[in-house]
Amino acid sequence: MTPAQQSLVDEIRARFGERAAITDAADIEPWLTDWRGRWHGRAGAILQPSSTREVAAIVGLAGERGIALVPQGGNTSMVGGATPPEDGSALILSLRRMNRIRSIDPAAMRVEAEAGVILQSLHEAVAADGIRFPLTLGARGSETVGGLISTNAGGTQVLRFGPMRTLVDGIEGVLPDGTIHSGLSGLKKDNRGTSIDQLLIGAEGTLGVVTAARLKLFPALHSRAVAWLGLGSPQAALDTLRVLESETDRIEGFEILPDESLKAVLSHVAGTRAPLGEDHGWHALVEAVADSSKVEPPAELLARLLAPLIECGLIEDATISSSEAQAEAFWRIRDSLSEAERATFGPATQHDISVPVDAMPRFMDEAAREVERSFPGVHASGFGHLGDGNIHFHVRAGERGGPDWLRREGPAVTRLVHDLVTAAGGSISAEHGIGVMKKEELERLSPDRVRILRAIKRSLDPKTVMNPGKLV
Amino acid sequence: MTPAQQSLVDEIRARFGERAAITDAADIEPWLTDWRGRWHGRAGAILQPSSTREVAAIVGLAGERGIALVPQGGNTSMVGGATPPEDGSALILSLRRMNRIRSIDPAAMRVEAEAGVILQSLHEAVAADGIRFPLTLGARGSETVGGLISTNAGGTQVLRFGPMRTLVDGIEGVLPDGTIHSGLSGLKKDNRGTSIDQLLIGAEGTLGVVTAARLKLFPALHSRAVAWLGLGSPQAALDTLRVLESETDRIEGFEILPDESLKAVLSHVAGTRAPLGEDHGWHALVEAVADSSKVEPPAELLARLLAPLIECGLIEDATISSSEAQAEAFWRIRDSLSEAERATFGPATQHDISVPVDAMPRFMDEAAREVERSFPGVHASGFGHLGDGNIHFHVRAGERGGPDWLRREGPAVTRLVHDLVTAAGGSISAEHGIGVMKKEELERLSPDRVRILRAIKRSLDPKTVMNPGKLV
Lengths: 472, 472
What we know:
Two copies of one chain form a homodimer. By secondary structure, chain A is an alpha+beta fold. Chain A is 37% helix and 21% strand. The interface between A and B is large, with 67 and 67 residues.
């Protein structure tokens, strides 16, 4: 640590107790690397405030002394958004100790949770009241409320509930100058200029630290059923989704994957088995739900709506989960995709991209062909949230492989994919954010946007206290 | 006009045609005063671009020459948000010629409309496709899409659909430096930093001009019914609303008014009659709707849910509209309130304020008593959107009246009301915005917020091109 950093740590400990700062290298170590091991940084201390007042004091002191802070929740960023800089110039500001659920209001269907509350804990806490917080994703055992907001997290329930932005009803945060923004009043109407709550959503901790949030809740699910469909193409999957959506508002999940990805899971993940008897080019997982026992059970709903689509040949084959265990087994295939692909196919560039939903089947087809034409021997494909227009588009080394393929050719492949996405009116980051990983590409492809974001950043954080080197 | 303004007008006409600028004083006159006649300004020209490209060029040229622009839609601001400055230093930038509905997509339930589209035209255009845009308010015959977004407009349908912010799916706009922001791609997921769409919502034209928007649509209503309730207090009204909300999601409107306001309408507005036979201290108007013929008809739904509340005494009396004409008649009473109050009771200070919904009945009671204690002889009361925690709180001169009461005592009364709202955790502007009217009060009561908004304003508009003197 620099003398200035040490002095900041000393003052924070003097004011807020020993626990307010961790300086033991072994305790800091796990938080210096992102969870996929792609970015590594250095930091002399982790600051751990236990209240919003303490966060404000720490941010204020850091600003006065010119020390940058890297906010951290569960450290599950996919884009290096929570990794400290390599030069050790910043300290980590962990929100982990702010993990209280302050209140649950079942009448208003709202929960007020601090930034460090882990998503799974939130799910469990409200479930006790017979209600639910619908957003969920693979990292729910680590990911925190503050991180979900700062990255406007997506996940598998976006189709019905939207991303984190639509689930936030108010934010408490600390701005880069140490000002506390209190947006937790629960006002249904408040028109006092641009929303500061909205400013902090998706800002990746560059415009301030989220310290707590008021979140929307929904009735607990009464039941669910998951159908597994065999299909000829992504277009057939999209057509199927459109029919389902025109008939019901109870479809919560709609994920697609190519046959090779299913095969990778079946061979890599113990205990998995093929949901359908025969091979199909593409597969879709469809989840239908019921909020109460008064409506048609989800399995019957799916059977009724899917039958004519099988009859007319839009769907090649389908099976519907007959138990919660089977529904879980279908989801397990989906949730194991990334891991199985990595283990089976070796190195690949991965792209979390979006285009307008209706344009996705054509984009998947054309982009794969263009990438394979430009880099003969590679294999391009996508899987994921078709109903959101968000596919995780992977390009595997294939015949061009070798230990250093990713380093050698990965950036050029990624640039091509991003060019194709941009030409299709899409986004180079659908749900994972920009962080350090996509910063250069954002600047290359969206210079106007970067100029605007950077102007806002400079105006609110002229000393670059908050999360330096991320986003802009 | 100054020579610089004249030269800008000349260049705009040369590039975009004669119609792109109005300089005839008689044609400009109606747009120099807000519709309630409270603010008056001067402007040597109204610039009228017909495309986003033209808006961008005009904003860019104005910035180069240091000429400020006041964006104007329907000129229906309640807070002087669209009135040019008195010194003639700005020109008006009218979006009226950008009044195309670019596309309606009934499958995706989206409409893309230019900023100058009048709300009523939007309603009618989508109605032809059997769908609806739910937001509505009194000024729907003048108010434009751009104005609705720039003020995050509310209205009577917020209870079920939220304010304008929740109905916007994407924005196209021009930033103060002339950059075009294109947010109309219809991406369901896009995480490239803080949302620029959100930045422009409620910014009152100070951070740029909205030129078009992609808006959410909903199935057309199949039917509706309106109940008129006689009640003892706002608390009884709120308790009634809570019961209704726990039983159904088909309540679209819930407005309350005191008996004296009803009496004012009955004596002032020809053709109105009391919905109930006897007097009640308070009244509520409740609208229930049905999207299809398959659900319980709204009148039956209301009758079934209200009956036990009458029986247990929560509601004193109720009647349910038996025809569309009667439903309209009930709404006409509500919509005539402001006008009837002004005509009947003389001068009053009017406050568009919000507090958390559950706190509103107590706030109405305590704030009225406090105001009447501090200014003996005045009469304080509120009416409006109880379900949104948004009341239009009026303080009438009463015995303290006289021709100059508003000027003499109005500001002190307003400050007291705002102090009480702030103490209750509320907002001094629930739906009307800040404009010029509440600018000083916002700064007095929310200095942190103003500092943040002003920093953003300076960063994006260092030359103060956009709507000078408004909001911050």
